[in-house]
Prior knowledge:
The chain is built from 14 helices and 10 strands. The protein has 2 domains: 175 residues, Rossmann fold; 210 residues, Dehydroquinate synthase-like, alpha domain. By secondary structure, it is α/β, with parallel strands linked by helices. The model has no long low-confidence stretch (mean pLDDT 95). Helix 6 packs parallel to helix 8, helix 6 packs parallel to helix 10 and helix 10 crosses helix 11. It has a 6-stranded parallel β-sheet with strand order 3-10-7-6-4-5, sandwiched between helices. A two-stranded antiparallel sheet has the order 1-2. Strands 8-9 form a two-stranded antiparallel ribbon. The structure holds zinc ion (ZN) (2 copies). One zinc ion binds next to helix 6 and helix 10. One zinc ion binds next to helix 7.
Amino acid sequence: MIEITCSCEKKTHKAPMEMCEISSGAIYKIPKILKGYKKVYIVADSNTYKAAGKYVEDILKENDMLYNTFVFDDQLVLPNAQSIGKVLLNFQPLDAKPNIFEYCPMPDFILAVGSGSLNDICRVVSYRIGLPYGIVATAPSMDGYASAGSPILHDGTKSTIQGTTPKYIIADIDVLKEAPYDMMLAGIGDMFGKYTGMLDWELARDYTGEYFCDKISADVIEATNKCLANGYNIADRNPECIKNIMDGFLVTGLGMAFIGNSRPASGSEHIIAHAWELFDVEAANAPHLHGLEVCEATRLVAIMYKMLHKETEDAHLKQLIEKYIPYFNAVEEFCKKMKVPPTVVKRETILAGIKRALIMRDRYTILFYLRDIGKFDEYAEKATDELLKLI
Ligand SMILES: [Zn+2]
Ligand SMILES: [Zn+2]
């Protein structure tokens, strides 16, 4: 467990995570990190197995800690009941000799090797059957590594269900720097969403009295600033830059565990991105990278905030937004220079996503503020048109 003292009203913050190792050569430390576990079950897909799973498997085998390895051979592993079932079914090789007098012996630890879906699946299996789990990250692509919730596809939609927070996150920079370039851009894009997310949280504090932690919010902004400043070096797969992104995910992930909700990681930009994603889920289209979707939504929400800053007569709100305008401008400049690809380009889809986001989640953000002052539709339309000029 990680515990810190804080000057906010909670006084201390706790997270169930044991440790996070972000370094070059981190996978070689796995036997030491997982000391005490003798039957580790590795879950990977064919890409992540090649990228890191095979090495992890060899290392665990050498140390007599490997129980079994399951590699999804699907082109696209989706977090759904079928994938969860496969992870359970393959605890043992399918041709293992049964002992009909006993139940199937269990592994003592689940180790997901991958990003996104593989973690979402293992997190749920871990929670459902009460086994600890950890992650070997293979791409610095999304902020969900340390999350406790898993977005699962079921009944034609996607919703978040409770899972387990990983005990260990192992991120080997030498593995991460080989990840596909778009996944790295997505990672930075997901971090950019923290700017709009933190401003939404401040807005909720000042206009609804919602709990806010200065320290956690400041840590998230600081981590995002590092990603922004160093992000240009991602083109060269710069190790420092990759470390900044993983550190950012850790700060936001821990922040969520510390306060028990996702405020430190997400605001209106994540809700809008989620709405866009649902349109694809419902139409059975392949999903976009989460971070790229969040990045586009961040640019959209930044436009709304800048419009509000110009028009509002509320001096306090003006001041609040002012702090973030340099960040918003820097994000826009980054996206332009680094050619961050947009995900949703149709006017009606962008707009429908904003409208769906308003009713999808009961969380106070700029969307609720605009609704309450009767300007939601006007801002949604105008911001969509502005965004279309930028992407
Ligand atoms: Zn605090
Ligand atoms: Zn995210």
